[in-house]
Amino acid sequence: MQVIKTDLVIIGAGPGGLSAALYAKRAGLDFEIVDKNMAGGQIINTDSIENYPGFKENISGYELARNLVEHCRKFDISVLDYFAIDSIGKTGKTEDGKSFGFKCEGDERLIRTNAIIIATGASPDRLNVEGEDEFIGRGISFCGTCDGILYRDKEVAVVGGGDTAIEEAIFLAKFAKKVYVVHRRNELRAAQILKDRAFNNKKIEFLWCCMIEKFLGKDKLERILLRNKNEDKTYEMEIDGVFEYIGWKPNSGLVKDLVKLDKRGSIITNFKMESSMPGIFAIGDVRNTPLRQVVTAVADGAIAAVYTDRYLYSLEHEESKG
Ligand code: NAP
Question: Catalytic pick from 81, 125, 143, 209?
Fold first, then answer.
């Protein structure tokens, strides 16, 4: 087992984690940034980002992610990617007498560190209805950017009424013959600019107050069973693909026994991005953020790195006094 000793581990190399890495580097910290997947985070799968300040022409999520990674490389920061941390624990002194607050273990590596920034983001929620498990990857998808092209001239449904659902419905309408937006209420949660675009798109049709109750088909998805809540009626509808965008769950499992979480499972932080456990910080979609955006994740990353630096400084000075 390889043992790495460092001041700080940043877990997750999305926009928040990469921004934290840039600021940690500028503060002169010794740190590792790791990601269980390719560096870049959720935005890799976003077709176009049009609200990241300074990019007045649309930039694809993939391109923005690449820019962030290359910006880090310019400052000699390399992401330890495809490395999954399986557990985080508190530790005391090591055999050489130096104390480390935490140990992170996974894939034949042990990282001893005094501070951690959790930047693990969030994962898509699922409908959890009959047939869903069976047809994921065979008609059910969570990523229009990845799978949209497979539905050229076909009929698809998007579930949800938030920004993601409406953005993806507009994207899918570029390929699909028809896009049904299945929403459980009669009003969208999405931003006005997205609503206007969707309402003006002739390929998009809204199925208000409807829920999918069952996914049906043989080898691949063929039909959905819909319930119209207003009429209290169910009916089957033929469909080639369904894209679910009904929200996100914070990926906070690694620290669920170490820090306080809110009832959704988000890590509770203060304005310094500190969790309830000294030395553990959280940023972006995994924390109880009031706004889930690239711009807020990036800002969180900068704040967390600055306060981690202060935390490590005070730890070192307390240790030397003690
Ligand atoms: P969201 O805002 O939480 O919306 C989830 C949608 O799914 C809601 O319309 C909700 O219905 C519906 N829903 C939830 N559970 C459901 C269920 N079990 N069955 C059927 N429908 C269900 O999630 P999001 O759209 O992924 O957005 C997440 C965050 O990212 C938001 O803060 C959003 O503003 C941000 N975001 C921003 C952009 C952008 O600025 N361009 C793009 C994407 C995301 P109700 O409305 O009835 O609750």
Answer: 143
Q: Which helix (H) or strand (E) holds 116?
A: strand 109-118
CATH numbers and ranges of domains, the chain: 2-123+248-321 (3.50.50.60), 126-244 (3.50.50.60)
d(CA 240, CA 252): 34
Output the CA–CA distances (angstroms, integers) from residue 205 to 13, 72, 80, 189, 282, in the order listed: 37, 43, 44, 16, 39
Backbone angles phi, psi at 26, to 5 degrees: -65, -25
Name the residue at shortest CA distance from atom 41 of ligand 1.
Answer: 163
What is the per-residue pLDDT across 249-299, written as a single tens digit (0 to 9) for each? Answer: 999 999 999 999 999 999 999 999 999 999 999 999 999 999 888 999 999
The mean pLDDT value for 49-65 works out to: 90
The C-alpha atoms of residue 200 and residue 319 are separated, in whole angstroms, by 63
Dist CA 19 CA 66 (whole Å): 13
